[in-house]
Amino acid sequence: MNKSVIRLAALMVSMLLCQCKSVAAPGDDKRWQNAYSYTQDQAMENQSAISGSWSEKVEEIMISALSLTGVDYKYGGRSPETGFDCSGFVQYVFKHAAQISLPPSARTISEMGDAVKREDLQPGDLVFFNTLRSAFSHVGIYVGNNQFIHAPRAGAKVRIESMDERYWRTRYNGAKRLEVEASQ
Question: Which of 116, 118, 140, 145 has the highest CB neighbour count under 10 A?
Answer without folding.
Answer: 140
